[in-house]
Amino acid sequence: MHQEVPVTQLTRREISQQDYERIHTSTEFAELRKRFRGFAFPMTVVFLVWYLLYVLMSAYATGFMSTKVLGNINVGLIFGLLQFLSTFVITAMYVRHSNKNTDPLADDLREQLEGKTPDESGTTEKGTTRA
Question: Which pTM value belongs to this model?
Answer without folding.
Answer: 0.70
